[in-house]
Fold these 2 entries.
Entry 1:
Amino acid sequence: MPFSDYKTALVTGASSGMGAAIVERFCKEGLKVHALARSGDLLQELSKRTGCIPLAVDVRDLKAITQLTQEVQFDILVNCAGINFPGSIVSAEAEQIDAEIGVNLQSAMHLVRLIMPGMLKRDRGHIINITSIAAIYNFVGSNTLYHTTKAAMHMLSRQLRVDAIGKRVRVTEICPGRVATDIFAHVNGTDATTARAQFIDGFELPLASDIADAIAFAVAAPIAVNISNMEILPTLQVAAGLTTVKPEPV
């Protein structure tokens, strides 16, 4: 289905990184894009650059997103909002568990619940879930909460295709590996310069725009084609390895 068959899109987590790149690409394709995130200043800058409609809203604000979906008929939904706290579940605070489930999973499920019925009725629409290779693979030292919520989004993506059977509503899951964005500073609780030196500088990594291009490819595919899942990794990154440790002395 060409982009011309779609008119409107909602992108969450839109203020920076992959979300902002997706907004920019969709605007270039002529879509009326609603860009939703908490960072109002960044959204205003994005709006000036792209012409998107900025929505400074916490994606967990159910009242606000419900009102939005009642006012606007969306043809494309991109669930890109996500957070990731450092540490594992054994060191997690209760508020961190609630926040990761709320942003990474619950908000996306609410948006699908609110938007997908209209897509089914119109026999047209595309839901795009940005997960992670953390949805599929385990990494030592990575956040249990992030893996768990992304794995749930992986299964949600698969199940939505079942829920849409018989209708031309497509579901695409994007599973990025390491991408050159500012997320690493948030995950590791360090400043942006330190995080960039550790995780980005010197590596050959996909850019946020590369992820946006992949999404555009999936959206522009013929209506008979549903690109259901893409793992997008750096050429020099593999998801492999087995960790074995010796027990600590008693």
Note: The chain has a mean pLDDT of 92.
Entry 2:
Amino acid sequence: MPTSRYPQDRFDDLPDTDRVGAHRAENPRMRGWVVLLWAALATVVLIAVGIFGTLIASGRIELAPTPTPTVSVPPEVTPVKDTSYQVQILNATPEEGLATRLKDDVVAAGWTEDTVTAGEAGSQDFPTTTVFYSTAADEAAAKGLAEAIGGAATEQSDAYVASSPDVKQLTIVIGLDRTAAGSPTPTP
């Protein structure tokens, strides 16, 4: 039986080594434990991603939860009777003389005669007697004045601003609740 020989080519003229021909490489040795480790790691990652994806899809986990709004109760302002404020009284009812009577009540509560003015408002249908103040710093004094006149609502407004920025002023607008048709004017 004849042995087959390959024809001679340029790859056969190499220095003596263990290799036979340059185009024939050794078979690399496969390490089975490395392949097993990578397969196990890939399996764990795929299972974790699947579970996490299912929880997100079912709504059990939110990636960016919306914050629940918190309701903060504004601090309660304690009324302070501060007679350093000028007081403007406006009668917004059809009944005459209410502003003068309320001026007497304010003076009797401790304000001086020259810091309290009384007059008529531009309308005669204001529903509720209200003490108006300009800034949040004036709220305690407005509540104190409201208590001094026997109770009134208080409201922050820029509608009744003092003529000078140096002057602290509160404005009482007498409403229909102080007329003879409404409830009687309380006395302090």
Note: The first strand starts at residue 86 and ends at 91.
